[in-house]
Amino acid sequence: MVAHTTIGELSESDLLARILPVFAAGKGAGRGVLVPPGDDAAVLATGGSVVVTTDSMVRGMDWRDDWSSGHDVGLKLVAQNVADVAAMGAVPTGLLIALAAAPATSLDWVVDLTDGIAAGAEDAGCPVVGGDLSSAPEGVVIVAVTAFGDLEGRAPVLRSGARPGDVVAVAGSLGWSGAGLALLLAGEAGPSDPRAGSERKAREGSVERARSLVTWFHRSPRPPWEAGPVAAAVGASSMIDLSDGLVRDGGRIAAASGVELALDERVLRETFLAGVVADAVGEDEGWRQVLSGGEEHSLLATFPPGAVPDDPSAPWTVIGEVVEAGAAGPRLTVGGAEPSVTGWDHFAG
Amino acid sequence: MVAHTTIGELSESDLLARILPVFAAGKGAGRGVLVPPGDDAAVLATGGSVVVTTDSMVRGMDWRDDWSSGHDVGLKLVAQNVADVAAMGAVPTGLLIALAAAPATSLDWVVDLTDGIAAGAEDAGCPVVGGDLSSAPEGVVIVAVTAFGDLEGRAPVLRSGARPGDVVAVAGSLGWSGAGLALLLAGEAGPSDPRAGSERKAREGSVERARSLVTWFHRSPRPPWEAGPVAAAVGASSMIDLSDGLVRDGGRIAAASGVELALDERVLRETFLAGVVADAVGEDEGWRQVLSGGEEHSLLATFPPGAVPDDPSAPWTVIGEVVEAGAAGPRLTVGGAEPSVTGWDHFAG
């Protein structure tokens, strides 16, 4: 067995010396960063306002080391924070990283996490502008990311602006992350990466490929965050990042806007269930995941009729319409009825 | 024994319903907040740039429940983040809170933490604009705070601007927090609050009062963050928040600026050691804490001669001068020699 260096064997400054260059090398670094990492705080250029959000991941709760690498966790942290910025209609401009880790945490893992964050940050075009390191109790690793965004003069797209007559559309997948988690929980899929081809994969059938694909979506999602500013620019009336599932998050738009989101069951089944998700987990479980699977980080938005963006690089799928709330009050319906599934709750599970 | 409600017994939305109103009631809320908590992200008004920083506290590492209440932890989190903003010369404009806590965490403790954060935020005049809740493994509570600040048109005050001929000054205490921690570690002082007078306290002598005072400074510091923007306005050449001790953080200014910070031992002893700190922990331990005690969050700055602010509400004490770096390179000296003490390191201890 190889003895790995732990972060407790390094001084804080030695550990920072390993981490900071990874972020400094990012292509996004410097653009709009008036004061870079290394002082008491960073300073970002802004255009009259700044979008701010934070989202954390906890080892053993939000990821398992046997399913996700540090690189996966880093990519996912960036994805979920950038998706929140995008859901306001903003482009990401910077990230802060707060890592609390037990001294026995392997340095290799932290470097892998750092690489994943840096790769995600570069993909999103936003630099890591600072952070914080804390020592944590044995076994504990928690990473909190704060993301900043620039609306570039656009009004922020809130959850409360959906109006009867608008259409409902989604950019990105539905149920893929949840289906991947379901497979991992059932022990029916390993964490192999479908992007890294292998002889074994070549021999596998479509079901196996589907399973690999959805587990990859769970481990390191890459939501179409570019669709957020595009939607804002064309006048999206409301928008939300799908972190807790279509039913729960769509219900939040309905509640905030005082309307009913009437979704089309046929379109949802044909677009998001048929094929990969049904192959991977079957029709019943797949449908449950399309409706309620969490951590997808796709964007759900409403648009005035005819305003849905026609963007081949981040396509929107129309899945329903906004109607007046009836006697049952603001709600989300699928095929005319409220789905019996709900969504993810961090404490009650 | 009373059975306390744990946060695991509540849904995430129920828990948020207990927490959010506390922040919404803060007097700072609304000022400059274009989009308040409740959407994917908050939006803050800015003046062309935004100062951003993050700092975390970990239960068992950064506080002990038998010494610090949730309210103490909340106040301290705000203090250390706002001090970082102030050390850039900015006024605080908003906070984000990321709480990762085990489901068995008592709701009372979380409410107490929330009250402490809200009290600190109100004192600092900046609203809590959002946050994140995560479930954590048994026994774990970690709170990561991100703070935002506005330079109000001033240039940021960096660590790198100290020039030979400048004077070195500090706003706030030196060694009080460290002396308080030393007493708590030695088991020689309880967590009683010197602000809450009692008959017992009235009977205590000056040593006991000193001990209570320094433990209070450790538990819930209130650094003079207002001094930061004032220093920036009068042309401070460099500034830093003293979180890791005078020697270590002053050394950071010396290194970043390529100069020597030559501190006056007599002034340091007379101003910061004599009296409370010496009474509380004795001359030798007190001197060690003045030089190297962490978590003080006072501001250390350099000013052109004659520019030190004369502000009775947040007074600056001149403690030395900036001189050309000699053969030994950039460094901090006290009475002409490099102190043998260093400062706090989060991982190596």
From TrEMBL, chains A, B:
Domain of life assignment: Bacteria
Catalytic reaction(s) noted: thiamine phosphate + ATP = thiamine diphosphate + ADP
Binding site residues for Mg(2+) 1: 54-55, 132
Keywords, sorted A to Z: ATP-binding, Kinase, Magnesium, Metal-binding, Nucleotide-binding, Thiamine biosynthesis, Transferase
Annotated EC: 2.7.4.16
UniProt binding sites for substrate: 62, 295, 344
Binding site for Mg(2+) 2: 55, 84
Pathway(s): Cofactor biosynthesis; thiamine diphosphate biosynthesis; thiamine diphosphate from thiamine phosphate: step 1/1
GO BP terms in the entry: thiamine biosynthetic process; thiamine diphosphate biosynthetic process
One Pfam family in the UniProt entry: AIRS
Binding locations of Mg(2+) 4: 40, 53, 84
Ligand binding (Mg(2+) 3): 40, 84, 241
UniProt GO MF annotations: ATP binding; magnesium ion binding; thiamine-phosphate kinase activity
Enzyme class: transferase
UniProt-annotated binding residues for Mg(2+) 5: 244
Binding residues annotated for ATP, in chain numbering: 131-132, 159, 243
Stretches assigned to the PurM-like N-terminal domain: 38-149
Coiled coil: none
Miscellaneous comment: Reaction mechanism of ThiL seems to utilize a direct, inline transfer of the gamma-phosphate of ATP to TMP rather than a phosphorylated enzyme intermediate.
Function recorded in the entry: Catalyzes the ATP-dependent phosphorylation of thiamine-monophosphate (TMP) to form thiamine-pyrophosphate (TPP), the active form of vitamin B1.
Family under the similarity heading: Belongs to the thiamine-monophosphate kinase family.
Protein name: Thiamine-monophosphate kinase
Protein source organism: Knoellia remsis
Encoding gene (name): thiL
